[in-house]
């Protein structure tokens, strides 16, 4: 069965990485939510994609330089057509509570490349375990050192390598960082990669798949999950394959 992940929530319609986008993705029938984790100056884990706040909030400053209470006053929907409806930047705990209540998966992407957040891996895993959500969480990152650190902290946590290149035998590389799955950019996936990954017990869940023809193609070749801005469109297509 192919899983349906809302990319930053239902971000094709609603302000990305907001509680509104997460709630709407659940209403649309997603199996999981993909989101991005960064850390404030006072150590709070928050859900926002960019290291800089300008694109989404209009404030030209870095997440790392704002305390949580300061960050909470910014409108995460400022860039969006719905900006008149104020949306705050959520915390990891808020999404964990929502996911637990609705029995959905969370794919947390650790953003620790452009900005290095010391200790972010342990903080995230501690929160996941506090909410007893380990079985419903995947941690991914483009920084594969972060994934190795996650496995050192908790060997049972599921991890996935994010990558945007056509890697040669990514299933072999994945094993070198002890990860459980591949999260490739959509154009770096083909049927051979899926077959080879499955032989090694790995899952394959590409991002960001918004075209319906591509969704159908991936489902037909046995993809494990699809990360999309439009979980409602994917839901309709998945029902056709039941």
Give the CA-based shape. globular
Give the DSSP E fraction (strand runs of 2 or more residues).
15-25%
Average predicted local confidence, pLDDT: 98
What is the helix/strand order? EHEEHHHEHEHEHEHEHEH
Largest sheet: 9 strands, mixed
Distance between the termini: 9 Å
- Going by CATH, the architecture would be Alpha-Beta Barrel
Describe the structure in brief:
The protein contains 10 helices and 9 strands. It is an alpha/beta fold.
Describe what you observe in this structure:
The model has no long low-confidence stretch (mean pLDDT 98). The protein has one domain (3-240): TIM Barrel (Alpha-Beta Barrel), CATH 3.20.20. Helix content is 35%, strand content 18%. Helix 1 packs parallel to helix 4. The chain has 242 residues and is an alpha/beta fold. Strands 1, 2, 3, 4, 5, 6, 7, 8 and 9 form a nine-stranded mixed sheet that branches. Strand 1 (3-7), helix 1 (19-27) and strand 2 form a beta-alpha-beta unit. It contains ten helices and nine strands. GO terms for molecular function: phosphoric diester hydrolase activity.
Structure keywords:
242 residues, alpha/beta, TIM Barrel, nine-stranded mixed beta sheet, 10 helices, 9 strands, globular
SSE layout:
Layout: E1 3-7, H1 19-27, E2 32-39, E3 45-47, H2 54-57, H3 68-71, H4 92-102, E4 105-110, H5 120-130, E5 137-141, H6 144-153, E6 158-163, H7 170-176, E7 181-184, H8 191-199, E8 203-204, H9 212-220, E9 225-228, H10 231-240
């Amino acid at each position: 069965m192919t899983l349906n992940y809302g990319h930053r929530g239902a971000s094709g319609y609603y302000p990305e990485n907001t509680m509104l986008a997460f709630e709407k993705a659940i209403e649309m029938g997603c199996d999981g939510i993909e989101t991005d984790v960064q850390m404030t100056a006072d150590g709070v884990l928050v859900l926002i994609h960019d290291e800089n706040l300008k694109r989404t909030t209009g404030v030209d400053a870095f997440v790392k330089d704002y305390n949580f209470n300061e960050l909470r006053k910014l409108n995460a929907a400022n860039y969006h057509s719905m900006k008149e409806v104020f949306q705050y930047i959520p915390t990891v705990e808020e999404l964990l509570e929502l996911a637990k209540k609705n029995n959905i998966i969370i794919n947390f992407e650790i953003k620790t490349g452009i900005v290095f957040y010391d200790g972010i891996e342990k903080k995230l895993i501690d929160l996941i375990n506090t909410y007893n959500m380990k079985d419903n969480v995947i941690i991914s990152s483009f920084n594969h050192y972060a994934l190795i650190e996650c496995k050192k902290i908790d060997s049972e946590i599921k991890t996935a390598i994010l990558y945007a290149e056509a890697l040669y035998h990514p299933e072999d590389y994945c094993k070198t960082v002890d990860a459980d799955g591949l999260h490739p950019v959509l154009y770096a996936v083909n049927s051979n990669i899926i077959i080879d990954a499955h032989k090694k017990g790995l899952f394959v869940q590409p991002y960001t798949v918004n075209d319906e023809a591509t969704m159908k193609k991936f489902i037909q070749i046995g993809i494990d999950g699809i990360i999309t801005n439009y979980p409602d469109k994917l839901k309709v297509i998945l029902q056709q394959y039941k």
